[in-house]
């Protein structure tokens, strides 16, 4: 199948991500290309957030008109897809070398994804419109499959594990993004966890109304003020390890 046929079968933005769309013959030549446009849009999103990204603003940052940009990238939706794919190039092959034990590899995979969401808070604001089909996104999937290559899982099961871990990383990334935004706005980390309200909540959350939450509120476990809590306890790591335990237990049951 030739490139023109493949291009016609894919959405325009996806075809652009694979580099199988010819550069426009009209408009600015050699002064602008798809990568420059995407890089400029990412710079704006990094500095001002995703809401600040518009075709006009990106064009202006490059010294061109929005009409010039549309010759290269047909729509803002295509631009967002290309931005998302570009920042998904996170060097997983270097972070997770061949032969790394599967639990260690999947742990590194999730933490790399969480780091992406932390470093690029706008990433999770781009709606998910379907399965990943752009090259860098597929490279992420390929890396996760490589980690699980020798596991006693069927292909559909491996894809389900990837979806589970990616969803967990996304949820953790969103929470960390919101925490960072709150702290940046002046909130303390203690206030974010509800610690300053421990005394008031302990009186409001009664055993009659909240029978199962009440003991945790009294102990301080809910707001993280429990004096007996393990200082090294990490909610994110705890959840991830339990997911990996589940995968291991599931495979043991198939033996």
From TrEMBL:
InterPro entries: Homeodomain-like_sf (IPR009057), HTH-type_TetR-like_transc_reg (IPR050109), HTH_TetR (IPR001647), Repressor_TetR_C (IPR004111), Tet_transcr_reg_TetR-rel_C_sf (IPR036271). Keywords: DNA-binding, Transcription, Transcription regulation. Residues 31-91 form the HTH tetR-type domain. PROSITE patterns: HTH_TETR_2. Transmembrane segments: none annotated. Pfam families: TetR_C_1 (PF02909), TetR_N (PF00440). Residues 54-73 bind DNA. This is TetR/AcrR family transcriptional regulator.
